[in-house]
Specification:
Layout (H helix, E strand, L loop, with lengths): L2 H21 L4 H10 L7 E5 L7 H5 L5 E6 L2 H11 L5 E5 L11 E7 L8 H11 E11 L3 H10 L12 H8 L3 E8 L4 E7 L1
Helix pairs in contact: 1-4
The structure holds S-adenosylmethionine (SAM).
Length: 199
């Protein structure tokens, strides 16, 4: 992942932010089911990586998090999230490149929703998950559509939005490495969930 990639991705999502909620959101029940299927814990310290405008905030709140840190590389996405959820005391939002994040405290659970293909360098991504989660903490890589839909959506995106094709759960698990215990690999037409814990 080089600086050019980072800046291209940031610019792409900054431009998309204003209309993001017109096309995304309003699926709290579906996302709560997704989180349950991924063994999302209650009363946890949660890290929402590449949070966008906060589509995961309401679903995560149903699990009564102790703390929810939502981060995104796009300032415009974070500005919208903050405008919607400023009254929420458990929520902290940050404009932050996940690759460069150096946590003060480790989280119990880390979620990456509809964003994993934009992390091109899977080795660095995996190393960051380990850095950000406590031992035994859970990561969740999830999509609200099946793999074919995700990949064709990325193929049809205006270039130069940068992404890698989403592989099967077992192939992505091999790419992420053996530092995790993978216990949820679920692919349907409506969901893609790869989840596990750090060793
Ligand atoms: C397809 S959007 C998904 C946003 C949100 N999770 C949702 O489902 O609405 C992908 C997000 O990943 C963010 N992103 C991409 N690379 C990132 C990075 N290195 N660090 C943090 N966020 C990143 C983008 O800014 C964008 O908001």
């Amino acid at each position: 992942m080089n600086k050019q990639h980072t800046s291209t991705i940031k610019q792409f999502f900054d431009k998309a932010a204003a209309s993001w909620d017109t096309y995304n959101g309003g699926e709290t029940d579906k996302l709560v089911s997704l989180l349950k299927a991924a063994h999302f814990p209650s009363h946890a310290k949660v890290l929402d990586v590449a949070c966008g405008t906060g589509v995961m905030v309401e679903p995560v709140l149903t699990f009564q998090p102790i703390k929810l840190l939502a981060m995104d590389i796009s300032p415009a996405m974070i500005e919208i999230l903050e405008s919607k959820y400023s009254a929420l005391s458990c929520l902290q939002a940050a404009v932050q490149d996940f690759y460069l994040y150096d946590p003060d405290e480790q989280a119990d659970v880390l979620i990456v929703y509809n964003a994993y293909p934009h992390f091109i360098d899977k080795q660095r991504f995996s190393a960051q998950i380990i850095k950000c989660l406590r031992p035994g903490g859970r990561f969740i890589i999830a999509h609200g559509s099946g793999r074919q839909v995700i990949n064709s959506r990325h193929d049809s995106l205006d270039k130069p939005c940068i992404s890698t094709p989403l592989l099967s759960c077992s192939e992505e698990a091999s790419r992420l490495g053996s530092e995790f215990v993978y216990d949820v690999m679920l692919e349907t037409e409506d969901y893609y969930i790869l989840s596990g814990t750090t060793k």
